[in-house]
Amino acid sequence: MGFEIPRALGVGAVQPHIYIDRNRKNPYFGNTLNADTFENTSINRFTTETAIKKMIESNPKVKNIVKDFNPNLNLNMNELRELLSNHAADTQNITKGIVENLPFALQAKVDAKSIDDASYLHDLGKVLIPAEVLNKPGKLDEKETKIMHTHSELSYEMLKNSGLNDKTLKLIRNHHQNAKRTGYPWVDKNFNADLNLQILSVADKYSALTEKRAYKEPMSPKQALTIIYQDVKEGKMHPFVFKALVNYAQQAQNVTNNVCL
User: Fold this and answer.
1) Is 20 a domain residue?
2) Whole-number Cα distances in Å, 241 to 33, 65, 81, 172, 180
3) Which of 31, 147, 183, 245 suits a disulfide with 176, CB 3.0-4.6 Å?
4) Is residue 81 part of a domain?
5) b/e map 70-94, b = 16+ CB within 10 Å
């Protein structure tokens, strides 16, 4: 059967029929952090072990955040490499698809470069989260949840002195926030979940829901979109962003079907 989503906040009916099974497959850090020369023009320059260690050394706040659960600053590089090649790359593709499906007037308000860089780097802080928390095959307890929730701020603090622009850094820090300010980390009453953040946030969520993780099997796009639509109903996301995600999902399925023919 098809999948019908009711009228979204007066914007018009969004009625996708989705049958998707998607397979995923500045050249310096500033004065203190130097990139490896062979990759110094790539966003990957921030993800090498050498670069990460230098970023941590450049900001004492990183050590303070992890002092209770990773005092030795152990880096889980294997986990990071897998994350970058799968979830991060997938999130990049989804953000691009959302932007391409926005109305032209909204596309003009998108900072594509900042979103793209933030999509790839948003979970960099997970390199400092213990593997037993990241890969726990079950629900996290309260302490573990607090540890996991530090990853977005860790990503921000690690990259804070890297030379990334402020827009990208704020997107990275707040990619688990929303227009109702009910996410994390904490933000004040002046916080604005702008269009760019909403695109990154929903792309990250859609990717996470539809991929296999240690604690869950992948959801179908239909299931994921049903969950995400609740955010629209609660005013956490603009309906046009959601509609663009739905359109992207339909297009991704069409591509998959054509490849399988």
Assistant:
1) no
2) 36, 33, 29, 18, 16
3) 183
4) yes
5) beeeeebeebbeebbeebbbbbbbb
Give strand pairing partners of 213: 216
Alpha carbon distance 27, 10 (integer Å):
46
Domain count, the chain: 1
Residue 254 — pLDDT band, cuts 50, 70, 90?
Answer: confident
- Which domain, by its residues, includes 67? 37-200
Quote the mean pLDDT of the chain. 87
Could you tell me the sign of the dihedral formed by the alpha carbons of 9, 168, 95, 214, in that order?
A: negative
Q: How far apart are CA 39 and CA 51, in angstroms?
A: 11
- List beta partners, residue 216: 213
Q: Which of 36-40, 181-185, 228-232 has the lowest mean pLDDT?
A: 36-40
pLDDT reading at 190 higher than 70: yes
Global pTM?
Answer: 0.83
Question: 24 lies in a domain?
Answer: no
